Automatic annotation (TrEMBL), chain A:
Domain UGSC-like, residue spans: 5-174
Species of origin: Phytoactinopolyspora halotolerans
Superkingdom of the source species: Bacteria
Protein name stated in the entry: UGSC-like domain-containing protein
Region: Disordered, residue numbers: 1-23
InterPro entries with a match to the protein in the record: UGSC-like_dom, UGSC_seleno
NCBIfam families reported for this sequence: UGSC_fam
From TrEMBL, chain B:
Protein name: Uncharacterized protein
Length: 184, 346
């Protein structure tokens, strides 16, 4: 029956090949930590708090805050270059909207492919769209870190609390990469 | 496409085909027309553009759609072949929209493409611009925007509950196409505001969030009607950023009253832009005070925040459409911004 019916999903597409993670550092001590925030409310505050916990607990080097101005779009090449030149690892987030969560995952995958270990934080309300982007990028098992939604209305104190738990998961992602059972 | 006599139709087969298209996951929830090489070719003859030209893009997903892809979806949506140039121009227009490129299709806001057609092609294709202009019953009005939605679904693969994250969505997401009732408008058409000559067949499109009616039939002074628009436009629920944009689908009778009072379209726009506002205290009362959000804050409680950044047509496009049978107009909330450009149908 389907012989003459055109499949409309066979569109031109330039989906990138399956990605692998960058190699992991042995420790975070003295490493430059990029904090790539997306301009969403409280995103910079959460990343900054995570960065400071990493510094306290892991002795990381300078924090390098950067902003992705168009949160839904792919990272511009000059920002990728800046991240590669100025950071040893990067924390990306916080994906807390329909387009910016998926985009954060895409950015993480791109930076891993370019050799920069990245930890991506999204809120749990956007798990499905984050996962959909990982699959679209050919990396179904790409690990992103979920935190409780929402974050936009957290107080400074609540952000500090949240950052304590998040920092350990960020450190694990940056150091270990993928849990053994999920590794390719 | 010739119409066969009823006895030649095969309703059972049509039902099976319809079910097959549902099962493949290609549908927006309503039955589809199957696209075949023959039917797609019938659409492609209505354009001189190369079938491999890329017209629609979603760079963050590495997705794109060609002229041919758009024809496939126009067939599936139930368009007639001669509508196809309008579909193409609608994508030309949407491809100039920052919001459509920048994540609008995936957004929690779930915005709809709002497509406005100007020029003689409205009559040629039977595009409704009068009574029930935003409602059902007119094939081009219903199927052209549906073709846009099917392209988003199947070419971009932006599908609800996955890459499409609409919180509640909005009614009629893929049904908002209107003609401007140029014949009953006292002013130049929208396409002139969009940079094209009057009389040009053209499409204007942007993403929008919702419609809100302004029912004002018993006025005695045009300023009362303007004040009613300003009130609707300044409601706090839709206030997200410092400024916002909105369109007005203006009833021909409201337009007539303004014109008789000596106002042109820009006069109307400037009046409304000058009167649509909220104070810092009013916004703060609903938890939306701008004092902590903007670099030039904090603001005194009686500080007036205008809804609109300025009175350019791009921030408050006005389209005359609908029936004169009752003086009701519609405010349409623009998602983000409109490029301010209209696009020729070629």
């Amino acid at each position: 029956m389907s012989g003459g019916i055109i499949d409309p999903t066979k569109s031109r597409s330039t989906v990138t090949a399956a990605g692998t993670d960058a190699s992991r550092p042995e420790q975070l001590r003295d490493l430059r930590v990029g904090l790539l925030e997306n301009g969403k409310r409280n995103a910079a505050q959460v990343l900054d708090a995570v960065g400071h916990v990493l510094a306290e607990r892991h002795g990381t080097g300078p924090l390098v805050p950067l902003i992705k101005k168009q949160f839904a779009m792919p990272l511009p090449d000059d920002l990728v270059d800046e991240l590669l030149a100025g950071c040893d690892v990067v924390v990306i987030g916080v994906g807390d909207c329909g387009s910016c969560s998926a985009s954060a995952v895409a950015d993480g995958i791109r930076l891993e492919q370019a050799g920069l270990p990245a930890a991506v934080i999204c809120t749990d309300a956007f798990e499905t769209t984050s996962q959909a982007m990982a699959e679209l990028k050919g990396d179904q098992a790409y690990p992103f870190i979920l935190t409780e939604h929402p974050i936009a209305n957290l107080t400074g104190e609540q952000i500090a609390q949240r950052a304590g738990g998040l920092a350990e998961r960020v450190a694990e992602r940056l150091l270990v990469g993928r849990p053994a059972s999920e590794a390719a | 496409m010739s119409s066969p006599v009823t006895s030649e139709l095969e309703p059972a087969t049509a039902g099976h085909v319809s079910e097959y298209l549902f099962e493949r996951g290609w549908s927006d929830g309503l039955p589809l027309v199957p696209a075949t090489e023959e039917s797609v070719q019938a659409f492609l003859v209505h354009t001189s553009r190369d079938e491999d030209e890329i017209v629609a893009r979603l760079p963050q997903l590495d997705r794109e759609a060609t002229v041919r892809d758009l024809a496939v979806h126009a067939v599936m949506a139930g368009c007639r072949p001669e509508y196809f140039p309008v579909v193409l121009a609608a994508w030309d227009a949407l491809s100039a929209e920052r919001s459509a490129l920048g994540g609008g299709w995936q957004s929690t806001s779930g915005p709809a493409p709002f497509v406005i057609v100007n020029g003689p092609i409205r009559a040629e294709l039977g595009i409704n611009s009068t009574g029930g202009v935003l409602g059902p019953g007119f094939r081009p009005n219903a199927t052209i925007p549906r073709a846009i939605g099917l392209t988003v679904r199947n070419s971009f693969r932006v599908i609800p509950h996955a890459l499409e994250q609409a919180t509640q969505g909005l009614p009629g997401r893929w049904t908002m196409l209107i003609g401007e009732d140029e014949e009953h408008s006292p002013w130049e058409p929208l396409s002139v505001d969009g940079g094209l000559p009057a009389g040009a067949d053209s499409v204007t499109a942007t993403l929008v969030r919702t419609c809100e009616f302004v029912d004002n039939r018993h006025f005695s002074d045009p300023e009362e009607v303007l004040r009613d628009f300003a009130d609707t436009l300044s409601r706090s629920g839709s206030w997200i950023f410092r400024h916002s944009s909105a369109a007005i689908v203006l009833n021909p009778d409201h337009a007539r009253v303004f014109a008789e009072a000596g106002m042109d379209k820009q006069d109307v726009r400037e009046w409304i832009v000058g009167h649509a506002s909220k104070t810092e205290a009013e916004l703060a009362a609903v938890g939306k005070g701008l004092s902590g959000q903007l670099p030039d804050g904090p603001f005194a409680p009686d500080h007036v925040h205008p809804v609109f950044a300025d009175a350019r047509p791009a921030n408050l496009p006005i389209i005359v459409a609908g029936s004169r049978n009752a003086a009701m107009s519609m405010v349409v909330r623009i998602f983000s911004t409109w490029s301010g450009r209209s696009f020729p149908i070629r």
